[in-house]
Structure formats: C-alpha cells, structure tokens
Amino acid sequence: MFKERPVEVSQEEITIKVEEIEPFLSAPALDMAEPKPCKIELKDGSTMLIREVKDEELPMLLDYVKKFMEKGSKDFYDIVGARVYAELLGYYRKRLKDPYLFVGAIDGECVGFANGRVRDKDINISLHTMAFKRGLRVGATLYYRKLVYAFEEQGNEEVWSTFESYNGWKRWGLGMAQPSYPYPEYQHELGGARVFYVDQQYWNAAVKDYVGQMVGNEISYDVSDELLAKNEKLRLPDGVNI
User: Fold this and answer.
1) Which of the 8 DSSP states describes residue 149?
2) Domain of 190, in residue numbers
3) What is the mean pLDDT of residues 180-204?
4) pTM for the full predicted model
5) Cβ proximity of 100 and 149 under 8 Å
6) Contact 132, 60 (CB under 8 A)
7) CA-CA distance, 87 to 99, in Å (whole number)?
8) Which of 113, 138, 166, 237 is a Cys-bridge partner for 131, taking CB atoms 3.0 to 4.6 Å apart?
9) Per the domain annotation, does 120 fall within a domain?
10) Residue 43: which CATH number?
11) Residue 135 region, left (φ>0) first, then alpha (ψ -120 to 50), else beta?
12) What's the CA gap between 168 and 173, in Å, rounded?
C-alpha cells in the first residue's frame, strides 16, 4: 500500500532486516516448563518412553504423516493428517505459538505422538494425538501425558480439546466424561468445533486416575539412562496402520 509522504524526509528508502521483522511474525514466547521424560509399562509388558521431540526428528515425522493423508477419508485420517502436517511444519518453522510435542517410543520405534500449545497462562490447547501402534492404549496414554504436562508441570487452569473422529471423542471426550462449553460462544481453533475441557478441579477430582484405569499402570518419571539411550534415535514404523 502506498501513500504520499506529508513532509520532506532525509531517507527515501528504509531497509529493514528480516531479523527485525521476525519478532512481529513469531509471537513472544511464554515461560514454559521443560517437559520431563517419563515412562509407562503397557499391557503387553513393553515400556514406552515419552519425551519431547527433537527438531531433527521433525522431517521424519512430516514424511510419515503424509502417508495418512494418502489413505483416504476412513476415520477422518485425511483431514487429521493434513492438520497434523501443518502443525508439525508450524512447530518446525517457528510459526506455532508456544507448542509442545511428545513422542512415545518403544525400543527406539516411534509408536505415537501428542501435541498442543499453550495459549496463555490459563488455557492449554490440545491439538492432536496419534497412535501408530494399535492395541496398547498408546493414544490414551499420550493424551493423558498432555494433561499431566498442562496441570502438573505448566500449571495451566484448563485444557481445551476438540475431536474430529468418533473414535477420538469416544476415547477422550466420553472416556474422561469431559464437559463442553456453550456453543458457539466458545469455539476451538481447529475448525471452530465445540470445546471440550478439563479444568484443575476436575483433573484432581477424577481425571488423574484415568490412565491407571485405561492402561493398568501410571506414568513414572524414574527414567534410566539406559532407557533414554535405547530411545535416543527414533525410527518410524514401516507402514501405516489405520
């Protein structure tokens, strides 16, 4: 957009470095808690390590998530894949405000991930949870890990979720008996869908017991150097199981 200058100026052109523009395009970061690595024994006896993703692992995850978009519309995996791809790319390119992303790994194999972002000191936005290995309640455990991070480590007051698929709503919305906010006054950023939420009071009163009920074990922060080393380098499953 151009407009005539109202006065005489000493410089006809002003050069701006992109480093000066970047603070306008990427939001100032909140003081976020560093997620702690943790583990849980799954029902088949395997131990899943849950840790924060590394930047160098994101291209591998991006390539893998592309495969979900190619699988078609079954269980909404096309739209889930597209949205997850955008979120991972936003994380990688620093275009997502205060994101966090957990990967679940068993003996070096990435079996799922869960991501979200901190909107402000009170509200934590759950984005997506995907399980790459079926039958072990990996997705339920990783979703629960997001809530632990929000309430126990980050000190947020609420976690907001929405659900694209019937299975997602059944597992976490119905499974945790999550209430919802009045609609359309409250809308989730994922497509303007209904906001389901867990707050601190409900977390402490009931939801804390959820993973124990679902998986049979609790997450533990007693993580050995051996377990960390075993899952230091991630590999993705050979195929996509939907």
Assistant:
1) I
2) 30-230
3) 96
4) 0.92
5) yes
6) no
7) 9
8) 138
9) yes
10) 3.40.630.30
11) left
12) 7
Q: Are 36 and 90 in contact (CB under 8 A)?
A: no
In this structure, is residue 185 part of a structural domain? Answer: yes
Q: In whole angstroms, what is the distance from residue 57 CA to residue 62 CA?
A: 9
Identify the helix (H) or strand (E) that includes residue 143. Answer: helix 138-148
Note whether residue 7 is domain-resident: no
> What is the average per-residue pLDDT within 36-53?
95
181 touches 129 (CB < 8 A): no
* Local structure of residue 162 (DSSP, 8 states): -
What is the gyration radius of the CA atoms in the chain, in angstroms?
20
Q: Is residue 49 part of a domain?
A: yes
Question: What gap in Å lies between CA 209 and CA 72, rounded to an integer?
Answer: 36
For residue 195, give both structure tokens: 């906001």
Q: What are φ and ψ of residue 180, in 5° steps?
A: -130, 155
* Chain segment 67-117, per-residue pLDDT in tens: 988 888 888 999 999 999 999 999 999 999 999 999 999 999 999 999 999
Phi then psi for residue 146, to 5 deg, are: -60, -40
Identify whether the C-beta of residue 102 lies closer than 8 Å to the C-beta of residue 115.
yes
On whether the CB atoms of residues 23 and 50 are closer than 8 A, the answer is: no
pLDDT tens track for 1-24: 889 999 999 999 999 999 999 988
Instruction: Give the DSSP H/E element, type plus range, for residue 226.
Output: helix 225-230
Residue 183: predicted pLDDT: 97
d(CA 208, CA 20): 44
Give the strands of the sheet with 47-52, arranged side by side: 38-41, 47-52, 99-106, 109-118, 123-131, 158-161, 196-199
Structural domain total, the chain: 1
